[in-house]
Write a structure and sequence with these properties.
alpha/beta, one-carbon metabolism, two-stranded antiparallel ribbon, Dihydrofolate Reductase, subunit A, binds NADP nicotinamide-adenine-dinucleotide phosphate, oxidoreductase, eight-stranded mixed β-sheet, EC 1.5.1.3, 162 residues, DHFR-like_dom_sf, NADP binding
Length: 162
């Protein structure tokens, strides 16, 4: 099974200067809970945005066109076909965690969406790729708790392909 796990603002912004535009610990917690149920796939730039990769207790798979790209304790794949084969042979969900290029590449293949919608507008340079929501059914929705550490109103949504 393939899933997408991401957070976007009211305009679909997901990134700024190689990092996240917001600080929202509740979303990091949600991200961890979801992704710990399987393994993770990300683009090379998203890998570089993670402070101490790999993400622990999950196999980390990275997509890069660079055949010489190697990182310790990370599986590097070079094509969509390699990823689909890897996911098929795995008995765990492969959670696709971005960025934009990688979401675009798997938009027709993804089975489930784990989306955090942040109800604000941020400045950014990376935007979520288009998703055909008509092909998905919203199966769960929950308001995030706003407090002194989580100052941005947000909603967690889970969609399943129809
Ligand atoms: N809000 C969120 O949920 C979220 C999630 C993820 C990322 N982000 C943010 O988004 C930004 C990074 O995302 P991004 O969209 O710029 O980059 P990205 O998708 O993480 O990485 C792009 C790289 O992936 C590789 N790639 C892309 N398509 C490929 C293909 N078809 N085959 C093989 N390799 C391929 C290439 O690596 P090479 O150049 O090595 O060939 C490409 O440069 C950061 O700001 C990050 O913080 C936000």
């Amino acid at each position: 099974m393939l899933t997408f796990v991401w957070a976007e603002d009211e305009n679909g912004v997901i990134g700024k200067d190689g990092s996240l535009p917001w600080n929202l610990p509740n979303d990091m917690k949600f991200f961890k809970e979801v992704t710990l149920t399987g393994n993770v796939l990300m683009g090379r730039k998203t890998l570089e945005s993670i402070p101490n990769p790999p993400l622990k207790n999950r196999i980390n798979v990275v997509l890069s066109r660079n055949e010489n790209f190697e990182v310790e304790n990370i599986i590097v794949l070079h094509s969509k076909e390699d990823v689909l084969k890897y996911a098929e042979e795995s008995d765990k969900p492969l959670h696709i965690i971005g960025g934009s290029d990688i979401f675009q590449l798997f938009s027709q293949d993804v089975d489930r969406l784990y989306k955090t919608l942040i109800h604000e507008e941020f400045e950014g340079d990376t935007v979520m790729s288009p998703i055909d929501y008509d092909a998905f059914e919203l199966i769960e929705e929950r308001e995030g708790v706003v407090d002194e550490k989580n100052i941005h109103a947000h909603t967690f949504q889970i969609y399943k392909r129809k």
